C-alpha cells in the first residue's frame, strides 16, 4: 500500500514539475513579465508597418488595450512584444505556445477550432476578388481558366478551390499562392495573375495603397462570409475568458467603435462603414 501511495505522489510531482507542462497563458505572462502577440505586416488596416517601420493598425490598437488590461489584472508592468506573422505561421505559432495570441485578420472556422481557440468576433467581411478594371470581370465565374492569387493556407484559397471542385469555375482557375497579401498585389500589378482573392476589407486596403487605386476594382458578390476573431491557445479557457471580457469592455465603453472609426471611418485608412449585421452582432456579444 505504501508503495502505491508513494508512486501516486511521485507521479503527481512529476506532472507538476515536468518541463514543457503548460500552466496557462496568464500564469506564463505573469511569471515571465511578457505578453507576446502575433500581428500582420501587410493586412491593411488590421496590421501593417507605417513610414517609421512601426506596427500599426486596428488589431494592433486592440492588442495594446488588452495589454493594458493585463497589467491591471496582474498588478505589475508587462512587456508587450509584437511578432510579425503571416497566414501560414499564425496558427502553428499559437498552437506550439510561441505566441500568446494573434491579433490580426483571421477567420474563425470550425476546422481551425481543432487546433486553436478563438475569441468573440471582432469584424465581419467575406471573400472577394480584386482585378484591374480593364479586364471587365463581373463575377468569380469569369475566373474560368484564369490565374487567381491567394494567401497560402487562407480560407480564401480554400474558397476558390471549393468553387473549382464543385465545377462553379469551369474550366478551373489556376490558383497561385503567396505568403503575404503584398506579394499577391504586386503580382496583380505586374499581370502575373488575373485577380487576387482575399477578404473584401483587405482588398479595399490593398487597393487604397496601390500606386493607381482607380485602376482596380472589387469583383462581384461575396463568395463567403468571414467572421474575424483573435487566435488564442487551445484549452486555455481562463485566458480566453480574460481576452473576451476585455473585448466586451471595449465594445461597451466605446473604445471598439473609436478604433473602428479611426481605421474604417470616412477619414480612416480604409473607409468601410459598419453594416447593420455587424453592429447587431457586437451588441449581442457584449454579455451582461
Written overview of the protein:
- With 288 residues, this protein is of the alpha/beta class.
- It folds into 2 domains: 24-124 and 226-285, D-Maltodextrin-Binding Protein, domain 2, CATH 3.40.190; 127-219, D-Maltodextrin-Binding Protein, domain 2 (3-Layer(aba) Sandwich).
- Helix content is 40%, strand content 23%.
- Strands 5-1-6-13-7 form a 5-stranded mixed sheet.
- Helix 3 (58-74) crosses helix 8 (237-253).
- The longest helix is centred in the first third of the chain and has 17 residues, at 58-74.
Keywords:
single chain, 288 residues, alpha/beta, D-Maltodextrin-Binding Protein, domain 2, 2 domains, 5-stranded mixed β-sheet, 10 helices, 13 strands, 40% helix, globular, disordered N terminus
Task: Tell me the β content.
Answer: 15-25%
Uncertain segments are: 2-6, 8-21
Query: What is the number of helices?
Result: 10
Helix content: 25-40%
Order of helices and strands: HHEEEEHEHEEEEHEHEHEEHHH
What's the pLDDT, averaged over the residues? 91
CATH-defined superfamily of the largest domain: Periplasmic binding protein-like II
Tell how many strands the DSSP assignment holds: 13
Distance between the termini: 52 Å
Report the biggest beta sheet as strand number plus sense, adding barrel if it closes: 5 strands, mixed
Shape category:
globular
Q: If you compute it from the alpha carbons, what radius of gyration comes out, rounded to the nearest whole angstrom?
A: 21 Å
Number of domains: 2
CATH architecture of the largest domain: 3-Layer(aba) Sandwich
Largest sheet, order of strands side by side? 5-1-6-13-7
Amino acid at each position: 500500500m505504501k508503495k502505491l501511495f508513494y508512486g501516486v505522489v511521485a507521479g503527481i510531482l512529476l506532472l507538476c514539475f515536468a518541463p514543457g507542462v503548460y500552466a496557462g497563458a496568464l500564469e506564463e505572462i505573469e511569471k515571465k513579465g511578457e505578453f507576446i502577440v502575433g500581428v500582420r505586416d501587410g493586412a491593411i488596416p488590421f496590421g501593417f508597418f507605417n513610414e517609421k517601420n512601426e506596427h500599426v493598425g486596428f488589431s494592433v490598437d486592440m492588442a495594446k488595450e488588452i495589454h493594458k488590461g493585463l497589467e491591471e489584472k496582474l498588478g505589475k508592468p508587462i512587456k508587450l512584444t509584437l511578432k510579425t506573422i503571416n497566414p501560414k505561421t499564425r496558427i502553428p505559432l499559437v498552437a506550439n505556445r510561441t505566441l500568446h495570441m494573434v491579433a490580426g485578420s483571421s477567420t474563425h472556422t470550425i476546422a481551425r477550432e481543432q487546433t486553436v481557440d478563438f475569441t468573440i468576433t471582432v469584424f465581419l467581411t467575406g471573400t472577394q476578388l480584386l482585378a484591374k478594371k480593364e479586364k471587365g470581370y463581373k463575377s468569380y465565374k469569369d475566373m474560368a481558366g484564369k490565374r487567381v492569387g491567394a494567401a497560402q493556407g487562407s480560407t480564401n484559397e480554400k474558397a476558390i478551390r471549393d468553387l473549382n471542385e464543385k465545377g462553379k469555375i469551369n474550366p478551373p482557375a489556376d490558383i497561385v499562392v503567396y505568403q503575404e497579401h503584398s506579394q499577391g498585389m504586386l503580382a496583380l500589378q505586374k499581370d502575373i495573375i488575373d485577380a487576387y482573392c482575399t477578404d473584401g476589407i483587405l482588398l479595399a486596403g490593398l487597393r487604397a495603397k496601390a500606386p493607381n487605386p482607380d485602376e482596380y476594382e472589387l469583383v462581384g458578390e461575396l463568395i463567403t462570409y468571414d467572421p474575424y476573431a483573435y487566435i488564442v491557445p487551445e484549452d486555455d479557457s481562463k485566458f480566453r475568458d480574460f481576452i473576451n471580457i476585455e473585448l466586451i469592455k471595449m465594445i461597451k465603453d466605446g473604445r471598439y467603435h473609436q478604433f473602428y472609426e479611426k481605421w474604417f471611418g470616412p477619414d480612416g485608412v480604409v473607409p468601410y462603414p459598419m453594416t447593420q449585421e455587424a453592429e447587431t452582432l457586437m451588441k449581442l456579444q457584449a454579455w451582461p
